[in-house]
Amino acid sequence: MADLSPKDVEKAEFAFSIYDADGTNVIDCVDLGNVLRALNLNPTNATIEKLGGTKKKGEKKMKLDEFLPIFSQCKKDKEQGCFEDFVECLKLYDKQENGTMLAAELSHTLLSLGERLADAEVETVLKDCMDPEDDDGFIPYTRSVRTGRFSRFLGALSIRIF
User: Fold this and answer.
1) What does the pLDDT look like over 37-64, one tens digit per residue?
2) Which listed site, 3, 8, 86, 102, has its alpha carbon 20 to 30 Å from 25?
3) Topology given in CATH for the domain delimited by 6-74
């Protein structure tokens, strides 16, 4: 934890406080991933579980002094991936090199790569977060991804896309 700067600690305290429902410097461990993602980290769901995160509310609590070493550890992870990495992955499916891809390929990608989404979640992404398909089945992925609708949806699901 010595590698955290005073500014890092301040940011961590602020993010932690958002999920501290009753102001006691304690969060429910179901929110561990949300706090880390609020700090611009991108841990997998499996990593969050290893670090003490839970799937159900009320199973476990965590104090701020327990969270800071976890934050420090996650900050050191170089395998985070970022927005630009995700766009580069989508470009692999952009056969016309014009910022579009087949909606079916995006659906397949979300169903089969990284931490997979469920069919219903993919349908929601395509319906609510992406521009409509054109007559040939292509969607303009770059505009939708850059506007943030797509990434906000995935963040709300606590999904790591890399």
Assistant:
1) 889 888 888 889 999 999 899 999 999 9
2) 3
3) Recoverin; domain 1 (1.10.238)
41-61 exposure pattern, b = at least 16 Cβ within 10 A, e = fewer = bbbbeebbeebebbeeeeeee
Domain 83-158 classification at class level? mainly alpha
Question: Residues 69-111: pLDDT tens digits?
Answer: 999 999 887 665 666 777 788 888 999 999 899 989 988 888 8
- Token pair 């406080």 is found at 17
Give start-end residues of each CATH 1.10.238.10 domain in the chain: 6-74, 83-158
The closest alpha carbon to 144, from 92, 96, 104, 106, belongs to: 106
